[in-house]
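Take a look at the protein record below with the fold in mind.
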Amino acid sequence: MRHWQNDSVTQSLKSFTAGKEYDVIWFCDLVLWPYVKKAFPKHYKLILDRSRVDWLFQAEELRTLEQSWVQKLMRMENIWKVSRIERELIHELDLMIVCGPDDKAFLQSKVGPQDNIWVLPNGANEMFFNASSFPQEPASNPTALFCGALDYVPNIDALQWYAEDIHPQILKARPDYSLTLVGKNPTDAIKAMAHIKGINFVGEVPDVRHYYQNAWFQIVPLRIGGGTRLKIAEGLCLSNPVISTTLGAQGLELRDEEHLLLADESASFAKACLRLISDDSLRRKLGKSGRDKILKSYTWQAIGRRLVEKANSILKQEVTTK
């Protein structure tokens, strides 16, 4: 946590808020907690909005990534430090918002039952991610898409697993198949994947919709981390079918074989890709049912209404004794 702290930011925050009164202090992610603690009196209501649970994220990195024993010891020490902050923080907050039930379940398994942990999933802008606004035929050859930040450890791990264990299986059966990589800040290791047959590296683009429309389906081979799941919601909003690991789709109430395909092993993931390549009717079915689910439950308008209702209920409560 000290790595992210800056005394000048703390002073600026104190100066900006001095003499002002607030109904609630709403902050995002764990790294801002030390600033909030120093800058605001304890009588304010506190809401923490999280993109991921750091304790869970780092535990999964320790379990999944290849590391030297020194790196493992350092990561274990960091997990211990983060766990102390998590345990302290949960009792200071009036509300903690997490992205999925897996995040909530993990926290409650560590800190005990807490009624101030609330799940609010992410979603998509159905007006922007609307295929009818720019109709486009998919690629003539079978094409999959991976879309996401290409310097994010879970995405790097996902693509390395895919490139080493899944991609060769698909390519062996369908030499005409390709995967397109779209995302910002690619590492050198990700850029090097452009040399692998059947992997097309694009990088950062101003508008991802064209790539969703061009792809036959989207892959989400995540093995680490909770978080936003924005790309699944956006892709399905465009009726782009999804193949994901169970972890990759957690937090969205999507059912295997109805809204998407789930696969957690390299062989089953490759098999799922080959199913979608060979079955046009399955692609259409998953694309339609997936889009219908997003429009019903995961538009920003629907999520926003839930958020406003919850925030109002918090404001009506007595301030938490801290």
